[in-house]
Amino acid sequence: MSGLFPRPRAVVAPGAVHVPEWLPPERQRELVAACRKWARGPVPLRHTVLPGGGVMSVQTVCVGWHWQPYRYSRTADDVNGARVAGFPDWLAELGREALTAAYGDESPVRRYAPDTALINFYDGAARMGMHQDKEELSGAPVVSLSIGDTCVFRFGNTENRHKPYTDVELASGDLFVFGGPSRFAFHGVPKVCPGTADPASGMSRGRLNVTLRETGLGTFGDGRQRRSREFPNSSR
Ligand SMILES: O=C(O)CCC(=O)C(=O)O
């Protein structure tokens, strides 16, 4: 929600950029509507079960590629075996717009071609522990969009899940991009602030987070190594 004091764009670490209130309410509602549809199937929104038997408090559904700990596949073998919904062109375009907002209109940005989205729903008690997004073979940035309740997003270092880290409040419509030297930084969500969602976002409760990523797996899932570092550092 626009306040009296607009929050400024911030470079949290080299390549990690926070752009507050980037996605306007109407586009938030459109994205929420699309996520609601994906949450119904072909693979349902569910709590991911970890290999050790733990269950994530966040509920997740994917499009393009299905993420399960710790790999991508086209079918949700750990859920119902269904093939995940296709990744729409408009979502890739949204990713390129987001990257331009964070990094500027540079040529690697124009070539950004995300092919998977992880859609996470947080109720008031859900959290996400510190982790790296490293199942992708591409080094292209992760684009993260937040809708609904505000959260504390913890952005750490690339070495371990401990300090130094920076806590950033992500509110509805906020964009956070991490690429370049920060692409494999540990990050997590230690806290969601229930009741802070503006219904104009399309979320009456809870928090939705959509991360767009390039898997680097290619059309045929050939797994060619492509850890490109061609994206700008954006330390501006
Ligand atoms: O909810 C968020 O802001 C972070 C999500 C995340 O870290 C992930 O999906 O890997």
TrEMBL record:
Pfam families: 2OG-FeII_Oxy_2. It comes from Streptomyces gelaticus. Residues 216-236 are annotated as: Disordered. Gene3D superfamilies: Alpha-ketoglutarate-dependent dioxygenase AlkB-like. It comes from the Bacteria. Keywords: Dioxygenase, Iron, Metal-binding, Oxidoreductase. Its cofactor is Fe(2+). PROSITE patterns: FE2OG_OXY. Residues 113-216 form the Fe2OG dioxygenase domain. The gene is alkB. The keyword Transmembrane helix does not apply. This is Alkylated DNA repair protein. The keyword ATP-binding does not apply.
